[in-house]
Amino acid sequence: MTFGEYGALAVEVARSRGIARGDRVLIDVSASDEPLFWLMGPLSVGASVVLCANLDPARVPARVAAEGVTKVFAPSSVRRSNEDDHAMEAGRPGR
């Protein structure tokens, strides 16, 4: 795979998860070992990332508010059970 192909895939990953320019994406890096999905996707469309390791579900709302997060990319244990499996709008289920 070429760098251009990786870039195109990263853009598609972000778009498929509703991540766009200007979003601030809270990412639990322990949720995935594939940075193409959790890091390159948001960055490729002009979103910024807030990286967390071992995110405590009880602290997510405070972290979202403190960091100005618009999307959360974390395992389902961090999010409510009715939310999208990959990304959600902060405070509301994914689009």
Please describe what this structure looks like:
The protein has 95 residues and is an alpha/beta fold. It has one domain: Rossmann fold. Helices cover 34% and strands 16% of the residues. The chain contains three helices and four strands, in the order αβαβαββ. Strands 2-1-3-4 form a four-stranded mixed beta sheet, with helices on one face. α1 packs across α2. The longest helix has 14 residues. It is globular. It starts with a helix and ends in a 6-residue tail after the last strand. The C terminus is likely disordered.
Summary tags:
single chain, 95 residues, Rossmann fold, 4-stranded mixed β-sheet, 3 helices, 4 strands, disordered C terminus
Outline the fold blueprint.
Blueprint (H helix, E strand, L loop, with lengths): L2 H14 L7 E5 L6 H10 L3 E5 L7 H8 L3 E3 L14 E2 L6
Parallel strand pairs: 1-2, 1-3
Antiparallel strand pairs: 3-4
Helix pairs in contact: 1-2
